[in-house]
Amino acid sequence: MKTVGIDARLYFQTGVGVYLRNLIYYLQKIRLNDLRFNIYILKSDSDNIHFENKNFIKREVTSRWHSLSEQISFKKDLDKDNLDLMHFTYFSYPVLYDKKFIATIHDLTPLLFKTGKASTQNPFVYELKYLVFKYILYNQVKKALHIITPTKTVKKQILEVYGVQLKSKVTSLYEGVDSALIEKEGNAALADKFKRPFFIYVGTFYPHKNVKNLIKAFSNIKESIRLVLVGPQDYFASEILALIRQLHQEDRIVLFTPSTREDVIFFYKNASALIHPSLSEGFGLPIMEAAYYNLPIIASDIEVFKEILDSQYIFFNPNDVNDITQKIHKFLSEKPQFDYKKLVARYSFQKMAEETLKIYKNSL
Question: So what's the pLDDT on residue 351?
Answer without folding.
Answer: 97
